[in-house]
Amino acid sequence: MKRLSCFHLVVLLGPALGCGADPGSEVAAMRSDISVQCGAPASFPAPSYVRGVGLDEAGRYMSIATNPSARIVDLDTDTVVQNFVAYVVPEHLYPHTDASGALVVSNGGSPSYLSVREVGGSNRVQIPNADPAAYHLSGDGSVVVYEEDDTEQIYAYPVPASPSAYDPALRTPIATGRLHGVSDDGTVVLYGVARQAYVLDRTTNTTWTAPPTWTYEWVLSGDGRYIVTWDFQTLVRIEVGTGVREDLTTSVKRLWQVIGSYRSPPAISDDGRYIVADTEEALDPLDTDTDVDIYVFDLQSGSAQVVFDPPHNAARFALSGDGSRVAMVHRAAYYNTSISVAMNPFECSAAAPDPEAQ
């Protein structure tokens, strides 16, 4: 039996079901005791195809993208605080919240637009004819950065403090390539051209060229200091500016990964300490199978623990900015998905009482 540390169920797609409920139920929902704690694993199927999930800074708000709809869930109050239309094709277009969960960015409509709105409230701004291939909202909610699908032109647009009309004069072109990430303060932008990653510092207008890696997927830490990527079969963290590299794990099954597959790019906490990634390498002593599992890597202690064991080798996941919670959606078939949320097992260990003190 594999250890599955600190699980807590959160599927917000129907009436509440207890942890002992029938996992074959057509609908699924959160447990009522939504305060995330270390405990036994639980998961339920979702009634429709979930394309991805996201978490805000503290893991309180979770974004869920289906097609053509999305929702924002407040995990502390067991409520769906917003439902809206959001066209999420290609699959990496998820709704993104800012660090506080107060704002969300999504796309929709025909012709396509990009919308930054208050969660549960009004639009702050709607960018027409954006046709985004990717978009990110900075953690402080100050700027939205997006990539146009046809041109691969990357733009930045400041988010107004109150609902405002779109002003084309405020849209700034900043680079050409594939957008992969934005720092929390919106000043650092990660993008790629073919298999080459670049990091743009908008405050100095300088671009750093990352060491070449055999990949098309990169992730930027919220503080803008680290890139996480797969270099062929090896998961690596690279320090921006110095190129200092740390190798974390390998995944032979990454060989058959293709663009548009359901497997997820890695995730990283804002400070670069925690990384979430999938691998079939047994890094946990109780990991005794050869399936693809989802691990949390702690770069401070140099260790790793299993956080999810999806029953199928097809999963997407997200990590809250503070590294405290991990969300996962896994897919057995096109319309057979389920969502779970877990505490970071290293955070569980840190919060555990000292038996010597009792």
Q: What value does the average pLDDT take?
A: 78
Strand content is 35-45%
**Helical coverage, percent range:** under 10%
* SSE arrangement, N to C: EEEEEEEEEEEEEEEEEEEEEEEEEEEEEH
For the record, give the distance between the C-alpha atoms at the N and C termini, rounded to a whole number: 31 Å
Shape: globular
Key phrases:
disordered C terminus, 358 residues, 1 helix, four-stranded antiparallel sheet, disordered N terminus, mainly beta, five-stranded antiparallel sheet
Descriptive overview:
By secondary structure, the protein is mostly beta strands. Helices cover about 0% and strands about 45% of the residues. It contains one helix and 29 strands. A hairpin with a 5-residue loop joins strand 21 and strand 22. The radius of gyration is 19 Å and the shape is globular. The two termini are about 30 Å apart.
